[in-house]
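Retro notes (design track)

What went well: tokenization of the new backbones is finally stable.
What didn't: we kept losing track of which sequence belonged to which structure.
Fix going forward: every design gets posted as structure first, then sequence, in one message. First example under the new rule, 349 residues:
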């Protein structure tokens, strides 16, 4: 009995020191819900990319599909942040999550009825990207309302870690499901994965208070936000580096279905397994950042991971060899996992 109590005491001290955010019930429930949702999101993302490749008239149109997915995020994310500062964040998050659920159900229905086409997938990609543009900023801010400020860095790291765990499970499940019962079930399972997180957000006490604002218009606040970033060296440096990196480097995954099929000769299941290597590296990168949050210098770590991430991506260019591609994806996942965690934390602190 005494040994058991001593063990619990040791674990309690370890948890409080290394994962204080997970010791809070509200964040722990939100974290678990996000894990299920992220698994479904990765299943849908992988399934959409693979089907888009099969329906695309040429590889060029696969690039167009990737552009349609990510361009709305580039255009609307800052505007979404301004909107999130004017309305109750809980309500906004519920709206985006329910809308994403409805979109996943609609895509599943399209495939169940066998009326899928490239234009329909392109439209779904644009809608999904737009919804994600409004979902991501409020989802990140919502974390800051669940934990004290001194635990925010740890919470962001573990939230990113759950997202990266999903990067391992989601693609693997998507590959298996597509090969076994068809792609439509990837979208259906994604829709079902939103249920836990919607339930948690609905009953959460966080985000119920309407943020205070000056009464100025959204566009004016948007411009003032850009000016604010421009007058703070740390925010400006992080924003510029993150923007350039995300714009030029992170969209390598758009071509991964083509790499899997044409360079490595893999089918849908093999493609899903291949993408799990990226998730394994991302888990290690985000956990490394979480555990090292008290000892690593932010500026040095942020810049080092950015350079390392770009270097790792170049290795993926050596196609035709599964082992080299897998190692490249692990390194890319690790460096980008740490880089994205640092970016989110520095922008929120």
């Amino acid at each position: 009995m005494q040994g058991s109590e001593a063990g619990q005491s040791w674990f309690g001290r370890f948890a409080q020191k290394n994962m204080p955010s997970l010791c809070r019930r509200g964040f722990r429930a939100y974290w678990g819900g996000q894990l299920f949702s992220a698994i479904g999101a990765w299943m849908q993302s992988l399934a959409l990319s693979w089907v888009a490749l099969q329906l695309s008239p040429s590889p060029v149109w696969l690039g167009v599909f990737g552009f349609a997915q990510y361009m709305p995020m580039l255009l609307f994310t800052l505007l979404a942040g301004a909107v999130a500062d004017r309305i109750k964040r809980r309500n906004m998050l519920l709206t985006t999550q329910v809308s994403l659920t409805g979109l996943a159900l609609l895509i599943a229905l399209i495939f169940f009825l066998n009326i899928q086409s490239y234009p329909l997938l392109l439209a779904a990609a644009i809608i999904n990207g737009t919804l994600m543009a409004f979902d991501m900023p409020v989802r990140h801010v919502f974390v800051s309302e669940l934990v004290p400020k001194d635990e925010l860095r740890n919470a962001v790291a573990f939230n990113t870690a759950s997202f990266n765990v999903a990067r391992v499970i989601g693609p693997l499940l998507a590959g298996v499901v597509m090969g076994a019962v068809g792609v439509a079930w990837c979208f259906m399972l994604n829709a079902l994965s939103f249920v836990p997180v919607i339930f948690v957000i609905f009953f959460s006490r966080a985000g119920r208070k309407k943020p205070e604002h000056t009464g100025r218009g959204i566009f004016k606040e948007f411009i003032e936000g850009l000016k604010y970033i421009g007058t703070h060296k740390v925010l400006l440096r992080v924003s510029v580096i993150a923007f350039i990196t995300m714009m030029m480097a992170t969209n390598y995954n758009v071509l991964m279905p083509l790499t899997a099929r044409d360079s490595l000769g893999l089918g849908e299941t093999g493609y899903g397994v291949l993408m799990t290597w990226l998730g394994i590296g991302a888990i290690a990168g985000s956990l490394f950042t979480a555990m090292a949050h008290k000892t690593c210098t932010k500026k040095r770590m942020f810049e080092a991971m950015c350079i390392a991430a770009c270097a790792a991506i170049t290795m993926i260019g050596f196609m035709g060899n599964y082992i080299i591609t897998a190692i490249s994806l692990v390194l890319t996942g690790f460096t980008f996992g740490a880089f994205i965690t640092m970016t989110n934390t520095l922008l929120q602190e």
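Added context from the reviewer: The radius of gyration is 20 Å.
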